[in-house]
Amino acid sequence: MGEGVEWGLHCCVTLAWLGDDEPVPTARLAAWFDLPPAYLTKRLQALVKAGVLSSTPGARGGFRLGRPPERITLMDVVAAIEGPDEMFRCTEIRRRPERSGAPARQFPQPCGVAAAVRKAEMAWRRELAGQTVADLLAAAPAGAADHTRRHFPRVTG
Amino acid sequence: MGEGVEWGLHCCVTLAWLGDDEPVPTARLAAWFDLPPAYLTKRLQALVKAGVLSSTPGARGGFRLGRPPERITLMDVVAAIEGPDEMFRCTEIRRRPERSGAPARQFPQPCGVAAAVRKAEMAWRRELAGQTVADLLAAAPAGAADHTRRHFPRVTG
DNA sequence: GTCGCAATACTCGGATATGTCCTGTCCGAGTTATCAGGG
DNA sequence: CCCTGATAACTCGGACAGGACATATCCGAGTATTGCGAC
After folding, report:
1. CB of A127 within 8 A of CB of B120?
2. Do residues B117 and B88 lie in contact, with contact meaning Cβ atoms separated by under 8 Å?
3. How far is CA A64 from the centre of its chain?
4. Which of A119, A132, B83, B152 has its CA 20 to 30 Å from the CA of residue B104?
């Protein structure tokens, strides 16, 4: 997993705390978390394309949540940033004996090995899809939202 | 996930089918699956170090299963090949506002974001640990073992 | 005031370095079986 | 028949090259707000 996932999730939580009265520019988020601004922008754009965030261009523009926190699952964020492809890619190794001279056979689909690993992968995805940004907000300590709302605007971007 | 995982699992299944009367050299496995021999060796060595396989040096040496298939979980193979580190690494982004001028706070440990993702990661690991190579053998089609035993020795390494 | 115009502050998308890790190869050292030759 | 030594067949570990992908930066284009000046 790239670290972009961590960035994305923390940005979502922060945006939720700040509310969506007015959009937050990337420069501020980058300054807050001490991240490279240009690169963070790329990641946020990916979240916009997935509908997790919405962006408003122009002066006083920036990013805000694309929908309420209860409807943003961790799976949404991970999928948007890491890309849609699964972590286990079956290259059909099992068929290669044919290249090496063995006679062709009937193979069940999918490959048993691939199916087994994918079962685990589905558990991972299901667990991610079962948690929302709202859950993260609920689990955060009491003063966290206030602390953010108080000091975020003061950070020099 | 690197493709080494697929290699490792298929090799385990094949080794199980071939039985452990006599060890199987890497060159044969590589020829069977049409894989780069030197690189496959590296992966098998990792499995040996984890106890999944055992190796016998010298002429007529090679690899065989390190323990019965029922006691080799998919987690064992994945951990041996992919390494012990978790896929999500928390870099404690949440603390960085302090660097940017915000006052220090008390943070719960672990970070809520990290905990949420790790919960999903645990589901993935649990699912992998719940399946063994023996399960893969049981799920394979009827003739697969025979087919392998018949044609494997004929492949020119 | 208000209309128009320029400057500013943002996002968006693409092009481009840089770095890190996965993939793949090679070589030397150690270990064991096999085999040939001499007693 | 047995002992000995050489050869061959393997694993093991490290060093190293190449390429793919993640990381990071920069620039031009588009868009909205703000502010200024003229009427």
Report:
1. yes
2. yes
3. 15
4. A132
Structure tokens, B89: 């690494």
Among all chains, which residue has been given the structure tokens 């961790």? A74
Give the bases of strand C that a protein CB approaches within 7 Å: 7-14, 22-27, 30-34
Q: How far apart are CA B38 and CA B31, in angstroms?
A: 11
pLDDT in tens, B98-151: 888 899 988 888 899 999 999 999 999 999 999 999 999 999 999 999 999 999
One of 1.10.630.10, 3.40.640.10, 3.40.50.720, 1.10.10.10 is the CATH number of A4-154, namely: 1.10.10.10
Strand C reaches within 7 A of the B58 CB = yes
User: How far: B71 CA to D11 C1' (Å)?
Assistant: 25
A143 touches chain B (CB under 8 A): yes
Is A31 (CB) below 7 Å from strand C?
no
Residue A140's H or E segment, with its range, is none
| B4-84+132-154 to CATH, choices 3.40.50.720, 3.40.718.10, 3.40.50.2300, 1.10.10.10 | 1.10.10.10
Q: What is the pTM of this model?
A: 0.94
